[in-house]
Amino acid sequence: MKTFAYIVSPLTMKELKNYIPLARLLPDFLVNPFLKSCSPFKSFYFKKIRSIQDKEINGFTIVCPILTRRLGDDAELNIILEALRLAKKNGADIIGLSGYAAELADKRYFSVTKKADLPVTSGNAFTAWALFEQAYRMSKAKGVALNKITLAVMGAASTVGYLTARKLSTYATKIIICDHDKEKLAKLKEIILHLNPIEVIIETDAESAVRSADLVVNAGEDRIARALLKKNTLLVEGAYVSVPGSKDPIPADLAEVMLLALDDKLVNYSLGETINIDKLEEIADIAVQHGFEVWAPDAPVL
User: Fold this and answer.
1) Are 154 and 210 in contact (CB under 8 A)?
2) Assigned domain for 281 exists
3) Using CB atoms within 10 A as the burial measure, which of 49, 177, 249, 250 is most buried?
4) pLDDT at 30
5) CA separation for the pair 190, 8 (Å, rounded)
6) What are the beta bridge partners of residue 242?
7) Which residue ranges of the chain lie beneath pLDDT 50?
8) Which whole-number Å values give the CA distances from 86 to 41, 110, 116, 118, in the listed order?
C-alpha cells in the first residue's frame, strides 16, 4: 500500500487553525510568536482511501508555516525541503504540494528535484483540468457554445491559469487572458495563436476583464465579486473533486497526489512553470479509472 504526503502552506490564520485544532482556542497574538520558530509538522491523516479498482492508499498532511515568516526564497525553500524530509521520514512514497509551497517549488524546480529524495507534484494539472471541465460542463448545461461567447481566464499568468487558458483556447474563438504580468501574458498569447488562430485579448484590469466576458474561469487567488459580472455570465471558481466513499469533495491538487499514489505513478508530475498540456488529459483518464470525479454541482456529468 502506497503512502502520500500533502504539504500545505496556509495563507491566513483562519486556514492555519484548521490544521492546528488547539490554536482555535487561542487569540491570534498568542499563535503568531509560536509560528515564527515553528518547523513543519504533521497534522491530519488520510486512512484507507480506496479507488473503484479496489486499490488502497494512506496519507498525511504536513503543515509548512512559510507565510508567517517571509524570509526570502532561499530560506523559505529550505523550509519546504525540511517538510520534504519529514515526509520521507514518515514513510511517504510521493509528495503533493499546495498553495505557496507549490508556487515556490515550481519556481525553484531544479533545486527541489535535485534535493528531494521523493517524487513531487504541485497538483496543477488536475486543478487546471477541473477548471476546464467545469467550464465545459457548465456551458453544456446552460446550452451555451464556447465558440460563440467571450471567455475570460483570471490569473492566466500562473501555471494553472496558463494550462487552463491553453485548454480552453481549443474550444474558443475569443478569450481574454488577465493577470498583472504582461510579459507572461504576451508569451501565453503567442503560444495560443501559434496553435489556434483565435482572438486573444491581454487584460491587466480584473474588473474590465470580467465585465467583458460571458464565461469567467478564475485561476487566481482572489475571489470574484458576482456584482462585477454581466447578467447571465457563467462563473467557474474553485477546483474540487469527489472521491469514492467520501461525501465531501477535496481540492484537486490533493486529488492529484492521491491518484498518482493509487496508480503507482511515482514521478515528478505537475512540477515547474512549464507543464506539458497533455498531462491534463492523462490525469483526467487516471481519475476516471479510479472513480474520482470533478465536482461541479451546477452542471451534470456528461
Assistant:
1) yes
2) no
3) 177
4) 64
5) 33
6) 293
7) 68-69
8) 8, 20, 11, 11
The Cα 146–Cα 113 span in angstroms is: 38
The pLDDT tens digits for 229-269 are 988 899 999 999 999 988 899 999 999 999 999 999 999 99
- Name residue, grid cell 477541473: 130
Q: How far apart are CA 121 and CA 252, in angstroms?
A: 12
> For residue 302, with 0-12 CB atoms within 10 Å meaning exposed, 13-18 middle and 19 or more buried, which class applies?
exposed
Q: Please, which residues bridge with residue 3 across strands?
A: 58
Class of residue 33 by CB neighbours under 10 A (exposed 0-12, middle 13-18, buried 19+): exposed
Same domain membership, residue 110 and residue 19: yes
Domain membership of residue 205 (yes or no) is yes
Residue 13 in grid coordinates: 490564520
Who contacts 266 (Cβ-Cβ below 8 Å, separation ≥6)?
2, 93, 94, 119, 260
Measured over the CA atoms of residue 152, residue 155, residue 160 and residue 162, the dihedral's sign is positive
12 and 110, same structural domain?
yes
Question: What would the pLDDT profile of 119-150 be if each residue is shown by its tens digit?
Answer: 999 999 999 999 999 999 999 999 999 999 99
CA angle 43, 249, 262 (to 5 degrees): 70
Name residue 235's amino acid.
Answer: L
Could you give the maximum distance between any two Cα atoms of the chain, in Å? 56
Q: How far apart are the first and last CA of the chain?
A: 32
Are 129 and 283 contacting, i.e. CB atoms less than 8 angstroms apart? yes
Q: Decide if 274 is inside a domain.
A: no
Q: In what order do the strands lie in the sheet with 94-97?
A: 41-50, 56-63, 2-8, 94-97, 120-121
The CATH code of the domain that includes 192 is 3.40.50.720
Task: Look up the domain containing 217 and give its range.
Answer: 126-237
Of the candidates 213, 237, 261, which is a domain's last residue? 237
- How many domains would you assign to the chain? 2
